[in-house]
Design brief:
heterodimer; A: about 475 residues; alpha+beta; Arc Repressor Mutant, subunit A; nine-stranded mixed sheet; 16 helices; about 40% helix; elongated; B: about 100 residues; Histone, subunit A; two-stranded antiparallel ribbon; about 10% strand
Chain lengths: ~475, ~100
């Protein structure tokens, strides 16, 4: 980023909150589930009723430790929980149980496109309830009253705080994207941003290129997709540089990303006032993972996305972009690997999976695990193209049908009589018929210059293909046509 | 020997009261400041102890890792959960008054 008076550098740190994929909440036995009827997943503990006490869910700790082991975090001998006190009805206790001075994980790192991004800490905390503002267009300032659903109150969260190691909006997106893939591969979170199970705040500052002093940082909230993260950070960097160029200074504050307006705006002071009076949670004892427990977690780590991408590139001979697309979705990568295990070549499978199948998944919002076409069905389709039964365009039609209803590719080919025709006698007769029907074009071809010949040949080839209703083997047809035109 | 902390100021008392949503009038401020100063003074006796080499503790009990398995346990029915609320909406939600009032 360059201003009128020279180049600037953006300095970005991210706080990523992920909901952990447990069965129950963090401190009580209520289900951890999305989309239930309001206030049906609650109990005295998550409602903060008098006399209730929190008891830590051990799966929360195991998931955090798994994440820690994967990204090289240090696990302090003990960590403790703290009360973060504030008045806001999203927590009925008027405090949120979090970790403050002694988090469960410190000093991790994630490699993103060859650069190492430091992660200062990751700590555990409980999620808050959901508030709906009524009246005043749903805005807090103008609302007449607010409605609260405590189903999400007490759902386990891990907050992952990066160091200010990111230098651009693109790099920030790449970091979150890789982090998401890691969390998904580990089974730590289902990382669905649209359901709020992954949320991001960004700390952004700018400084003169080459400077090692940090500028005044601004915290940005309310970015609910990778796209809005990129847009918000970009906008904020430009805003700060423009301020400095105009001789002004950046104010340390919290700003709200306005998705529609495409700008960040200051939050009113009340919302941003931070004085949480943290103190150790007296109802919970310290957490001290034993070496045995750490050993168990480390031993059970699955293959991480970076290693998986490298393996698929090596074994299937595919490029980094395809490997990244595949591994970006664990369900898709698993599907592709199952198709390859069923006998199909990796490159062809990757081609279908990053193309038509991924489009279908994106359009329908379903997981590859529930596609009507099982992975060995995709292998069957790949084989049908490989042995010349189907041309690529016909194979696309067959795939579309197999993604709509549970049919095998061979079944569709048989039902619709789609099998590619390679029989020379049959195709030869068709070519002859086309040439007879278009004698004038054949004349023009024979007497024409190169340009005319090329055009006429294209026309005749198209007519031949049409006469086979798209089923003619293009290589065979082409050769037969050229033999006759020679 | 560590020094005693500076006495609490009326401004700090007013700030703490605001954070705790306590409406304290100006006429009460001096009284609360003196009371709190006495409490803090008492706590400051701890500062007189020689605690070199003593690890800070977050909890008085010598316990670690008290946890439970990740298994669902029955909670409250919604009508039970809402029964104690001062106000509800649609028999589904807790209803709270306007969150950011005139002071916001």
């Amino acid at each position: 980023m360059t201003g009128g008076s020279g180049p600037y550098e953006a300095v970005i740190g991210l706080e990523v909150h992920v909901e952990l994929a447990t069965v129950t909440k963090m401190f009580c036995g209520c289900p951890n589930a999305f989309g239930a009827e309001p206030n049906t997943l609650v109990c005295p503990t998550c409602l903060g009723l008098p006399g209730s006490l929190p008891v830590l869910n051990r799966a929360v700790v195991d998931l955090a430790l798994r994440f820690g082991a994967a990204l090289g975090f240090r696990v302090p001998e003990t960590s403790i929980f703290a009360r973060k006190n504030y008045f806001y009805p999203d927590m009925p206790k008027d405090y949120q149980i979090s970790q403050y001075e002694e988090p469960i994980l410190v000093d991790g790192r994630l490699e993103v496109d060859g650069a190492v991004v430091g992660i200062e800490r990751a700590h555990l905390e409980e999620d808050t309830g959901k508030i709906i503002h009524v009246g005043g267009g749903g805005r807090i300032h103008d609302a007449a009253c607010s409605l609260v659903d405590y189903n999400r109150a007490g759902v386990p969260l891990m907050e992952i705080v990066s160091r200010p190691d990111l230098r651009s909006a693109d790099q920030a997106r790449a970091y979150v994207s890789e982090l998401r893939a890691v969390l998904e591969a580990l089974g730590v979170s289902d990382v669905k941003m649209e359901e709020g199970s992954l949320r991001i705040d960004a700390n952004v500052s700018v400084r003169r290129a080459g400077s090692t002093v940090l500028g005044t940082k601004v915290e940005i909230k309310n970015m609910n997709s990778l796209r809005s993260l990129g847009r918000a950070v970009d906008h904020e960097v430009h805003r700060q540089v423009a301020l400095l160029e105009a001789g002004g200074s950046v104010t340390q504050e919290t700003r709200h990303w306005d998705e529609e307006g495409g700008v960040t705006q200051p939050m009113r002071t009340k919302e941003a006032s931070h004085d949480y009076r943290y103190f150790p949670e007296p109802d919970l004892v310290p957490l001290a993972p034993t070496p045995e427990r750490l050993g168990r977690v480390t031993a059970a780590l699955p293959e991480l996305p970076a290693a998986r991408r490298a393996r698929l590139r090596r074994e299937w001979g595919i490029g980094e972009a395809d490997a990244r697309t595949l591994v970006g979705r664990r369900d898709l990568a698993d599907y592709a690997e199952a198709a390859v295990a069923a006998g199909a070549p990796g490159a062809a499978v990757a081609n279908w999976c990053t193309g038509e199948i991924l489009s279908h998944l994106n359009e329908t919002g379903v997981s590859a695990e529930v596609l009507p076409l099982a992975p060995d069905g995709l292998a069957e389709l790949v084989a049908l193209v490989g042995d010349g039964t189907l041309s690529r365009p016909l194979a696309k039609d067959v795939l579309a049908e197999c993604l709509r209803e549970p049919k095998r590719p061979r079944q569709v080919v048989a039902e619709r009589g789609l099998a590619q025709v390679s029989d020379e006698e049959e195709l030869g007769a068709i070519v002859d018929e086309v040439l007879t029907r278009h004698a004038a074009e054949v004349e023009a071809y024979r007497g024409g210059d190169d340009k005319t010949r090329k055009r006429k040949r294209g026309f005749l080839m198209g007519e031949c293909m049409r006469a086979t209703r798209g089923r003619g083997n293009p290589q065979v047809l082409s050769r037969l046509l050229d033999e006759r035109l020679a | 020997m560590p020094e005693r902390a500076a006495p609490i100021t009326p401004e700090e008392v007013a700030h703490v009261a605001r954070l705790a949503r306590l409406a304290i009038g100006d006429e009460e401020l001096a009284g609360y400041t003196a009371d709190l100063a006495a409490v803090l003074d008492h706590a400051a006796d701890l500062a007189a102890l020689d605690l070199d080499g003593v690890e800070p503790t977050a909890h008085p009990l010598p316990l670690r890792n008290v946890d439970r398995p990740d298994e669902v346990r029955p909670g409250l029915r919604r009508d039970e959960a809402l029964a104690g609320a001062p106000d509800v909406a649609e028999n589904r939600y807790f209803r709270v008054p306007r969150i950011l009032g005139d002071e916001g």
